[in-house]
Amino acid sequence: MYTSIDLFSGPGGLCTGFKWAGIKPLIAVEWSDWTVQTYAATHGADIFELEKYLNGTLENADSYFKPNDRTLLIHGDINKVDGSLIKKILNKRFGVNTVDIVTGGAPCESFSMAGDRKEDDDRNYLFMNILRIAREVDSAMILFENVKGLFSKKLNGIPGKMYEAICDEFERKLENTPKYRLVSRDKDTVLLKAVDYGVPQNRERLFLVAINEKYGNARFNYPAPTHGLGAENPYVTVADAILDLPQIDSGEETEVYDFDINTVTNPTRLEFLKIMHGISKPAPAHLNYNPGTISSHKAVNHRESMRMRMSLIKQGENMQSACERLKENNQTELIEKYFPKKLYSARNRRLKEDEPSFTVTSHCLDEMIHPRLNRALTPREVARLQSFPDWYIFMGPYVKFHSDPQQDRYEQIGDAIPPLLAYNIAKEIVKTLNSIFPDRPIQDEGVV
């Protein structure tokens, strides 16, 4: 199995797809408390409390540096993760000095179209940690993920300059330091659409891939679409993704899942559900996954007025467009009774069941309405739209205010990289690594 360091790991979306392709994270780094718990529980990782280690209060600190094949998840600020610590863990715990690839999706709020996009935001430069650690361990490859908004982000007042600067930094030549070359800077090449790879969601993300220059002839090809127009399969729709789940109402929760997958005749839907059920890509053994149960399937208990508002919004409409239709139909009394004075087009959008979803974000609880029921989606339904399988364990509170430092389940899921998108990229990375290391056994797909 090939190995990675999984920086800004989130709840483990990229990790899941990479493990499906045969790439195992030896080290992961994440700062958010509940997100760390989600990753550790699902992937059987050991949690290493960075701050306690640095101030000398970490109990049995030496035990983390003894031989062990479990991923070590560093819980703390990546800026404080020194290269010497990374090397010590690799050497003492795993018996290696490097990994095959360093990955990371630095927090994207300042790059996002929805964010304030401040030029002087410290988060703009968190990506430097990915390069710092890759150079420290001399990894063969680097993968950097971010939002489409990075393409137009300003630097020194010039739109798009931030993207150029990040690309330049990847290829900067430093003395006595490993040097990397980007596979491509072309925006159309590096921007991938999740829907093209079996994810039931119109999500766009950019992926920069760099190869260590000492492997001069190595090549990487961005994955060809597997779904959509001209591809082998049609897109996976919202109905394909979530309508097999128990149709619970607002305020309800269930752990019982008795859907018979043998009743599914649509091959695209069947393939997706086999992944979700842990059939085609088995669940980790330590989870003892029971396919007759479902977790995180709990619907928010909406006020009656909110349920009435949702009932007035049709598939494909949002709060704003629903009001426009009601106005045209001379039903202004319903607008006055159930809608706020300020209408947001991104809020209360009812999904169209016969199409892929719009982008899942960390605000998905407020943004998405079930295609048939008058309620927001449950975390499990959102996880399905992100292509997280049903065996995935999400830890922490269901709902917190968005500004709360604790990431609730919706925010964890909304911020993640879809596992199926990560898997398709990872398959191409494995091909590149197979060409770089021809003496290693040809890498087959792995089990999470």
The overall strand count is 13
Overall pLDDT: 93
Instruction: Give a quick account of the main beta sheet: strands, pairing sense, barrel closure.
Output: 9 strands, mixed
Q: What is the CATH superfamily label of the largest domain?
A: Vaccinia Virus protein VP39
The helix content, as a percent range, equals 25-40%
**What is the SS-derived class?**
alpha/beta
The quaternary organization reads as single chain
> Class of the largest domain, according to the CATH hierarchy?
Alpha Beta
* Cα radius of gyration in angstroms: 22 Å
Proportion of beta-strand residues: 5-15%
Structural shape? globular
Give the ordered list of helices and strands. EHEHEHEHEHEEEHEHEEHHHHHEHEHHH
First CA to last CA: what distance? 11 Å
Estimate nothing, just give the exact number of structural domains.
2
Unreliable runs, pLDDT <50, ≥5 residues?
Answer: 108-124
CATH architectural type of the largest domain: 3-Layer(aba) Sandwich
Count of helix runs: 16
Q: What is the CATH fold-level name of the largest domain?
A: Rossmann fold
